[in-house]
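#onboarding

Welcome to the new folks! Below is a worked example of what a typical request in this channel looks like: someone posts a single protein sequence, and someone else replies with the predicted structure as tokens. Don't worry about understanding the tokens yet, we'll cover that in week two.

Example request:
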Amino acid sequence: MTLKINEIFRSIQGESSYAGLPCVFVRLTGCNLRCRYCDTTYALNEGREMSLISIMDEIDSFGFKLVEITGGEPLIQDKSIDLMSMLLEREYRVLIETNGSCDISKIPDGAIAIMDLKCPSSGETENIMWENIWKLRSTDEVKFVISDRPDYEWALGIIRERFGRSEIKILLSTVFGELPPGKLIKWMLEDKLNARFQLQMHKYIWPHDARGV
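Example response:
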């Protein structure tokens, strides 16, 4: 069994409620969306086939128990589910960064979905699989990447309608270089929005277009 892998590296987790923790990232090749502000276009096609055993060996070599499977979009490769299961069997904490367009119900119990609901400025809102909202588990997280005020109003409506009393963690961040973070924070405070603001921490530590960090 193989997966097409773009890169495997260790860094700190730059986003989500796990931000700041040492993490091993497994970036899979390929994505079914073309977001306007995509920051990993190099992962659309670049990659090499690796066996699941080889991938596990490389992950094990880093010595950290937090692993994020990302892309691209990891769920378009069916064997990503087998990799998640193998990691869980070895008692890794497993995060899956997914773009919200693929069925998340196949993610095994114990793995944590971080689902990006694509705001209008992404150009991909029409490809959201809305039924995923009802498949989220209490340990999962939902992310909105905000470019402007219309994006924020769109996200605010969804949060209030669906997640007002939910245990699911809600994450809001800005499109890097487009919306000043302080402006989004101001809107969140004015609306008494019970959500986590986040920066893409790695982009402020290393050059914003650096790979493998």
